[in-house]
Amino acid sequence: MSGRIDARLKELGIELPQATAPVANYVPYTVAGSLVIVSGQVTLWGGKVEYVGKLGRELGVEDGQKAARLCALNILTHLKTACGGDLDRVKRVVRLGGFVNCTPEFTEMPQVVNGASDLMVEVFGSAGRHARAAVGVASLPLGVAVEVEAMFEIA
Predict the structure, then answer these.
(1) What's the predicted TM-score (pTM) here?
(2) Residue 25 lies in a domain
């Protein structure tokens, strides 16, 4: 199904990645009433892990923003599946939670997670503005730099 949001993705030159399978005992998303909760997504593209390392050591803020954007693209892939292929069902982005693999001295987690937040606003316009958390952590699965989870309201 192709609609307004698919046209917006095409206009922005955004290609969604292939859906990734869970690596442990969980599902990629859950639908509860009018909410879709997408499990934390890491920096996978084409089955390959991207952006491995710690912010503040191997990676800088710009790399972290690109990593967060890639996580958000993976989120959109699962969201599209949850919506039966129709992203026009999304009424609003409710919340993003961003986890940044960083050194203890690194304090720019909010700027890193902006990579995901900015994508949501680019794609969904004002409905893409959301509540958010951006937290620094000691490590993440596969050694990736960023993981992002999300919640959406759908029709």
Answers:
(1) 0.97
(2) no
